[in-house]
Specification:
Blueprint: E1 31-33, E2 36-37, H1 42-49, E3 54-56, H2 70-76, E4 82-87, E5 110-115, H3 117-130, E6 135-141, H4 148-155, H5 159-168, E7 174-176, E8 178-182, E9 187-191, E10 196-203, E11 206-211, H6 216-219, E12 252-257, E13 262-265, E14 270-275, E15 282-289, H7 304-322, H8 328-336, H9 349-359
Parallel strand pairs: 1-12, 2-3
Antiparallel strand pairs: 3-13, 4-5, 4-6, 6-8, 7-15, 8-15, 9-14, 10-13, 10-15, 11-12, 11-14
The chain binds 2-oxoglutaric acid.
InterPro entries: Cupin_8 (IPR041667), FIH-1_dom_II (IPR027452), JmjC_dom (IPR003347), RmlC-like_jellyroll (IPR014710)
Pfam families: Cupin_8
Main location: cytoplasm
Amino acid sequence: MATVTVAEAEPTSPDGSGWTDEQLRKYPFPTKQIPRLSHTDPRAEILINNEEPVVLTDTNLVFPALKWDINYLQENIGNGDFSVYIAENHKFLYYDEKKMSNFENFVPKSRRIEMKFSEFVEKMHQMEELNGKQRVYLQQTLNDTVGQKIVVDFLGFNWNWINKQQTKRNWGQLTSNLLLIGMEGNVTPAHYDEQQNFFAQIKGYKRCILFPPDQFECLYPYPVHHPCDRQSQVDFENPDYEKFPKFKNAFGYEAVVGPGDVLYIPMYWWHHIESLLNGGVTITVNFWYKGAPTPKRIEYPLKAHQKVAIMRNIEKMLGEALGDPHEVGPLLNTMIKGRYDQDLNANTDNGEALHNTARE
Ligand SMILES: O=C(O)CCC(=O)C(=O)O
């Protein structure tokens, strides 16, 4: 099989980290660094137990895959079909195809095409050469169509370490391993998932900006029945502060992950992920796990992610009860406007009058 050369950048940074600040896109909110720790550091254990993000630098989770590049995958990944998204710009906003019938006027900004791996490589080449705005992003769950060498690499992952992580936190089953192969500069806009995630970087560098679940109000997710459920409506590059004023309060946690790093993305944490500019192709495999079952004894106050789960359930129940997802918003508005969106304890005219009467 002919070999191909898809831009594969070598580390160029003066500090040896493999990347520089110029490769990061600019956004209007502040961020703090996510800690980078050894998996043997007790602080890493504490962070994961508290469902807070951490980059683990030495798990060897995907060690056999660190040799993967486009040529190796082209030779060995097999003849299965791969889901490839094509977008007219660098942003790959996820949408749930099953929810598209709820919103007939919704026009997705990217489209999914099933293709062979070699076709994907070809497409990536064409797009690089044309230097246009169009881009591709391969996002495919690893399955049994992969070739023998990939199977051997997969079996050599550090299952011992990751199975222990799963068991000691009582997480549910591993649901899937998504293989992501992206072009430099590709962006997955901010969203949250309802699963625990160990995000293993294999090739190239990705910047991951995370926001905790208590920033729900700052990030304005689409309604649950919308195809973009769980995605933020805010365009980070051009935020509409009139529509989304609380985005001004957003505060992120970020890390750049490179080959061998594993980022723990806790369930319900928002994440925006970008392949660095001029950084070549990126390859990632994630490990998605179902969360632990809800505890029998609920402790109060509830955590932010539990409140998010409650809000999701209310939206879903209303959608079913009303028989039409489009009636959910109006009903919620009727229920809230002038009732729950006012501080009834405040010294309003009404409140003042009541107070005065009581004094007389
Ligand atoms: O790497 C990306 O572009 C997106 C990955 C992601 O959203 C995830 O693993 O949950």
